[in-house]
């Protein structure tokens, strides 16, 4: 960079400004229940994926503290070199049990898990097919893999089958990739149909359970459990960073896949292990998921209360099938104006614009946790009502 002309970069930033796409981080000073403090003001927090409130659970925090004291602040090394600690191994065993899989491998983040899983399983001569609304980590991994990459329209199992019907014979391996619950739309993939298609066309299936782990299914195992689908042979990716309240990613699946990833996934091999304290926190969080089903019940009560309140206000919801409830807002500019007005009215709910979502589908993405009280939700609905009256929102 030294001595080089940086004005083209400034122009890029100006262009983002012009399109209403410039981004910045907002500093959160404190978190308490369903509220956060920003610039000294307490706001109702509708932007967290901490669905069960476990980032703040006393037992989860104590487990992390104990591991910090015992193993130190960081792992100090990659897993294969000397960075495997008891919490890593215990968590992998526990996740494998929870996901009803043969084995499990941890990654430092969910993003890195997706990169490592997909690039290890398919390459040149193979085909990977994904939902058009798949998360960026899945898309990046598909591109990086070197396999032929096709997308099908969102949640459209018929179009997926058409693609396989036309192309299956031209490729050695085929990998189907979908989220269980979509991160920006909050709806579910048609998994029963996708699983059946995968079996019929002899394709592997990777389900990203980032937003469904801990939330969906009678035991919180995820969207496969929600649909009553056997996990046998299915590759279940997940993250520790959402309902499990920590950080890290994982793949639960057949032993041979896990062993291959351990030997081949570059985003596992060439990076320092997850801090043992994060693994210990997630391990305790998993126990809480099992022991405190009331948290999941409260979350779902909040989903019902919040979505029906928004609909009564006349808001157009993208979906209300999960704790992610996005409100359609139209243009990028109007979306950001609305997010700002909500902030002023005491609600932190982010505006989501392209490229995170397709062009023309900007939205306010609200997400709920079990920690939101009825009072929080009613106050947030009051703020939405007030703001909707000022800034026309799809009414
Ligand atoms: C569907 C999906 N997959 C993967 C990830 C990446 O997970 P992580 O935040 O652990 O990197 C996210 C969220 O960030 C996500 O929403």
Brief characterization of the structure:
This protein has 395 residues and is α/β, with parallel strands linked by helices. It is built from 14 helices and 14 strands.
Describe this structure in words.
The chain is an alpha/beta fold. The protein folds into 2 domains: 23-51 and 293-390, Aspartate Aminotransferase, domain 1, CATH 3.90.1150.10; 56-291, Type I PLP-dependent aspartate aminotransferase-like (Major domain) (Aspartate Aminotransferase, domain 2, 3-Layer(aba) Sandwich), CATH 3.40.640.10. The protein is 42% helix and 16% strand. The protein has a 7-stranded mixed β-sheet, with helices on both faces. Strands 1-2-3-12 form a 4-stranded mixed β-sheet. Strand 2 (35-38) and strand 3 (41-45) form a beta hairpin. The longest helix is centred in the C-terminal third of the chain and has 20 residues, at 293-312. It starts with 6 loop residues before the first helix and ends in a 5-residue tail after the last helix. Pyridoxal-5'-phosphate is lined by residues 109-111, 114, 135, 137, 179, 183, 208, 210-211, 239, 241, 249. Pyridoxal-5'-phosphate binds next to helix 4.
